Amino acid sequence: MADHQPFPPGGRRVERPAVASPCPSCGDLAGRGYPACRFCAELVDQYWLADWQVLLAAEQLAEGGAGERELAELVLADEVGKYPWTCVDWAMTLVGCSQCGAEPGTGPVDCVRCAMSDALRWSWDHAGFPKSMTAGEHALRVARATLRAPHRHRDPVVGAWRLLMPFLLVGHLPTVGQVRRLRAQVLAGAYEELARCADHGELIGFPELPWLRPSPSGEHQPKPQGDQDRAGDPLQGAADPRAGEPASDPV
What is the pTM of this model? Predict the structure, then answer.
């Protein structure tokens, strides 16, 4: 059975790497090749899988067994907060969307059921933050969800989370403003340069583009609609690292 406490935390059973290091398979920083690179996929997914395996053991079920899919359907149908957010996400990888057949939340952009499934998952974050979910865990969840369905988001959004993934894994957390600026830099074609940044500080400290520099009023003046994602897209923002202060958006 799931933990008795409401909103049991997730993603804390496996120790995080101390530093971001190159992936021995794809050569990029480990995690950035998710989910296409097998090593990167295993590195990221282990935090989700560890919680799911504990739930399987509690239910006396075997991984890959006949009852695993039934458990996944139960997890997704139950009330929000009964299971760890990692188990909710993992359950989504084990079932198919009733409309398009893809993993819920990853189907075609016009699949209504996928949109509903993706939106529903973020209700856990709203209710569980900050007691059962840290801002870093929230950002890591957003990054993984985005990279599993890149076709459902604008390229700058996908690129920004891909750049950040290796550093999220080791516990670094950008501010909302830093993520937005990073998206704008990706939009301007700086992805390859940004990907060569060796550490998190270098990445978020990458020189600002001329059209992103503060105006005389002290506010950034990006090009209209330049780095904006689709209206209402739940993967638009980033978690705010300030303690006790939830993100203004599900992500």
Answer: 0.84
Two tokens, residue 176: 């909302």
Dihedral in degrees, nearest 10, Cα atoms 83, 86, 90, 95: 40
Give the model's pLDDT for residue 163. 98
CA atoms within 13 A on the CB side of 58: 13
Render pLDDT for 74-106 as a digit per residue (tens, 0 to 9): 999 999 999 999 999 999 999 999 999 999 999
Three-class DSSP labels, 128-176 = HCCCCCCHHHHHHHHHHHHHHCHHHCCHHHHHHHHHHHHHHHCCCCCCH
CA distance 10 to 225: 35
DSSP state of 103: S
Count of residues in the chain: 251
Reduced to 3 states (helix: H, G, I; strand: E, B; else coil), residue 25 is: coil
Sequence letter at residue 60: Q
Q: For 27-49, how does the pLDDT look when each residue is reduced to its tens digit (9 = 90+)?
A: 999 999 999 999 999 999 999 99
Cα separation, 246 vs 178, whole angstroms: 17
